[in-house]
Amino acid sequence: MLSRTADHLFWMSRYTERAENTARMLDVNYQTALLPQSAAVAKLGWEGLLRISELMPAYEFLHGEVNSKDVLDFMVRDESNPSSILSCLKAARENARAVRGALPTEVWETINHTWLKLLQLLKGKDFERDPAKFFDWVKHRSHLSRGVAIGTMLRDEAFYFYRMGTFLERADNTARLLDVKFHAVESDFYGAASEQDQEYDFYHWSAILRSVSAFEVYRKVYRDVITPERVAELLILRADMPRSLHASLQGVVTNLGRVSNSVSGETERRAGKMLSDLRYGSLDEIMETGLHAYLTQFLDRVNELGGRISRDFLVPASV
Prior knowledge:
mainly alpha, globular
């Protein structure tokens, strides 16, 4: 298929997934900010979200001091922020519009309706009245777009590039979510012994699990109290957890193999090595490295992998 068409489909799915994951990160921060805690700790959570998204300089240029209201506005509706929900859903729609001929009508109509409804919600101040409800709507529309695509698209190269973009973006965002939340509690609450702090831990980690639709999965798999180590294991190493790093890389490798070409051998090798590290890795090894260092390295490798996929298959950045 044409590399330009593949490029639009790849980025259409990435931007839709990015909007969903931005909503998930904002939702978990919004929910945990409601827990009893000092203003300083709450501020650290919002700063961490901006830093892990690599948006702190852009935010400070526009708003200066970090506060929840401005961060939410910046991450939801600021068109100057390429990772805001508004910017992501706009980019997803533009990419879909560019390849309408390669998409089933239902896919285009779903993505287009999402964009039009988003403008209506933001204009009507629905986001300000109930941020949690708004984030649930963004997640639902992403689920709907993905479900319609899976249910209607022919299983050809267009579909494989679409799915590859979803899985690559999901791997990146799950790693970012894990890193920002573990980093936020590394000194104040991790392993705390007091009853009050243990209660905080429960609600904190519960919110993180719910943000990736994993709370019920955790209960089914571990049937025990929620601990940071098991949260990390579930979201990094479990192949049967849909949003884990392992499951996401498996999706990338599978779809990459289906579109393999004469120059993609090295890209496939690197993707396979990343998957192998997750398949045969252990939580003890990760903790020895340090969770933050491990996730930072993982994000670097995912970013490099995305660049290699673009070079091997898609439209060069200069075009």
